[in-house]
Amino acid sequence: MKVFVSVDMEGVSGLTDPEEMRTGGRGYERGCELMTGDANAAIRAAFDAGADRVVVTDAHGGGRNLRADLIDERCTLVRGPYKPMRMGEGLDSTFDVALYVGYHARAGAERGVLNHTWMGREIQNLYVNGEIAGEIRLMAGYAGSLGVPVGLVAGDEAACAEARDVLGAVPTVAVKRGLDRYAAELIPPARAQERIYETVLRSLREERWPQLTMSAPYTLAVEWNATAIAQSCAVIPGVRLTGPRTTELTTDDYADVVGLLGVCATLAGEIGCTGRHYG
To answer: Is 277 a catalytic residue?
Structure first.
């Protein structure tokens, strides 16, 4: 059995403050340790369930958050910025199942802890084939396009609810319950990580994994928070402007959806930084 694990940070046990997820922020180093702890719980369960290989990708920010010196030594770790497939880097059709750890709800989700979609400010809404999408739908769709089902989503309660809405009966672990965007009622990390371990172990042994299947062509629509971002992204071949702040991309290859969104997001981040010098 070959297992892919994508680990984000906002849905990690014990974390609620954006500073804990930002390089140089207060509590960031401890946040990296907690992120690695949640990842290790899933990795350990995968090997205990009989996995031959586990590939883990650091899916948060610049991809330099998981502690390489603390990660389970049996796995392979993919890290670093500007990975072509970003949160899905390392996944291909040879994997049996994908696990998503530390994931969060989409932008605007009620009581979603640290909710956003792909970027903190620049993306208002994102749609795939007309369905509103957060990172859970986006990544489950990428896995599904490769024929890979999803065996776990772990994060806050809103993320778990979103995962069930997208995938149906997918195993989930809620490690915290949102009180607001930056406040939550937490399960202590040691207990949360044990729940992740137990759920992954059971899921991989039972092998009843849902798969998100969408039909090509795939259309990605992004509502940005600024006209300058939309206009600049529309210069990219294949991306078209459909409104003052909205772009669309249509393709028969889902990898283009993920890859070009990453390119647009990089561009949007640069424009966003420039814009924050004004007003």
So the answer is: no
User: Could you tell me the pTM of the whole model?
Assistant: 0.96
Which is catalytic among the residues 60, 104, 116, 277? 116
Q: Which residues of the chain have pLDDT under 70?
A: 274-279
Q: What pLDDT is recorded for position 277?
A: 39
Q: Characterize 216-243 residue by residue with b for buried, 16 or more Cβ atoms within 10 angstroms of its Cβ, and e for exposed.
A: eebebbbbbbbeebbebbbeeeebeeee
Looking at residue 274, its pLDDT comes to 64
pLDDT reported for residue 276: 52
